[in-house]
Amino acid sequence: MQVAIIGLGLVGGSIGLALKQSSQPECEIVGYVRRPEVASTALSLGVVDKVETKLKDVVKEAGTVVIATPVLTVKEILSEIAAHLCSGCVVTDTASTKLDVMSWAEELLPPTVDFIGGHPMAGKETQGIQAADARLFQDCIYCLSPAKKASTQAIDKVANMVKRLGATPFFIDAQEHDYLVAGISHLPMLLSAAMVSATTKDPSWDKMSKLAASGYRDVTRLASGNPEVNAHICLTNTAALLHWIDEFGSELERYRQLVTTKDKHLEEALAEASEARKEWLSRTQQ
Fold first, then answer.
1. Distance (Å, rounded) from C-alpha 64 to C-alpha 154?
2. What is the CATH number of the domain that holds 51?
3. Which of 125, 150, 166, 261 could lock 114 by a disulfide, CB 3.0 to 4.6 Å apart?
4. How many independent structural domains does the chain possess?
């Protein structure tokens, strides 16, 4: 069995490593690269078994195709590979938004191919193939949104691949996925970036930066993510993201009023938030 990976960055590279190091390494991993230096690195790190520089060549014998690129490039890739996919091939992706991707797949892929939308709830702020890690998906939730016409065999195939990565398949409707992850993933990324923008533009940043420690580092970690990937996320999930920005704005204004009026209920509000986070943490550790 041949698995083609299009996009050998952090996520695509980690998928290649995890599949090659899994307990069932019976598949050949073929990667698509545009730059010679990436090809050399991918091979030396053991991310793939071989590389191709043309999309049609990387998919022509693949039973499974994984598209691990920024979301706005997925449409172009689907269009380019559609005519070269084997009958019975299963195509999946790793994009952080799903609704647009599912629509593109339905529009562009031939009826002989199944599409299963995917999104691993895992990542790092570091970028590129050098950051690839075979354990990136260990014990993480991996969202799957099968196309309406996807066969049971295709769904099982991708679900089994996800398990080989060390992740847990989580089936979810594409629209619901985009709404939920906008609140717990995309909004935090924007808040992190906004925090960096607000503080580093202040005239006192030079002195302030010397005082910044673990709290600032933790809150701003997501601002170090791939700008292209993050911009594509925002541009393909606008409505849901704006909803959560408004919700956050309302909560921030509530805290602002409590601070402004020196309201004694400020401690109560902070305690409620602290307790809610503790409850979430306890559930994730079960």
1. 9
2. 3.40.50.720
3. 150
4. 2
Q: Whole domain around residue 99: which residue ranges? A: 2-172
- Do 162 and 198 sit in the same domain of this protein? no
Cβ within 8 Å of residue 67, ≥6 positions away: 6, 7, 74, 77, 78, 91, 92, 93, 94, 95
Q: Are 38 and 16 in contact (CB under 8 A)?
A: no
Q: Are 53 and 76 in contact (CB under 8 A)?
A: no
Looking at residue 221, what DSSP letter applies?
G
Same domain, 190 and 119: no
CB-count burial class (<10 Å; 0-12, 13-18, 19+) for 144: buried
Mean pLDDT by groups of 10 residues along the chain of 286 residues: 94 95 80 87 93 95 96 97 97 98 98 98 86 94 97 97 96 98 97 98 97 96 93 97 98 98 97 97 84
